[in-house]
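Journal club prep, shared notes

We agreed each person brings one worked example of a sequence with its structure written out as tokens. Mine is ATP synthase subunit delta. I'm keeping it raw so we can talk through how to read the token line rather than staring at a rendered picture. Sequence first:
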Amino acid sequence: MAKLVSKTYGDALFEVALESGRMDEFRDEAVAVKAALNENPELFKLMSHPKIVKEEKVKIVEDIFAEKISAEFVGLLRLIVEKGHFAKVDTVLEYFIDCVKEYKNIGTAYVTSAMELSEAQKEAVEKRLLETTKYVKFEMHYAVDSALIGGMVIRIGDRVVDSSVRTKLNDLARELSKIQLKAGECAS
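Then the structure, token by token:
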């Protein structure tokens, strides 16, 4: 259900952004609203409280956001509240932001390495990703996991490239255990 809600409202906002030529403006507003909700968990709790009537919640949304974001975006938030889907607003905004990135060919890459990468190494990784994918730009997220021993793991969407030493050692151990099983089978 959450995916359907996210897709329905996210696609609607995307269409409005596309038709009005305001893709960047709406993306920036989505990022700002998402940040405001994440920074103010009390607001999210208030907007999700079952004893507060929808009309009051709509007024709260209008009071907070009317002067800060476009009328179209306030209208979307108002509609989400009126339909009782405010608990899913974060996933709606995330879906919309992902649609904009995909439309603009901006990828999101998560790179985990065994050691901190230098700026030159980070630039080389990003350059290689740009050469080997359809994307024209990347939002890069780096993390360190010493358990990888060496190498790195790169995740873009549902694709994973794992060149870590840990994985290579695990693969080698699996292959060796298969060889031992075959040798044991012959001995019987």
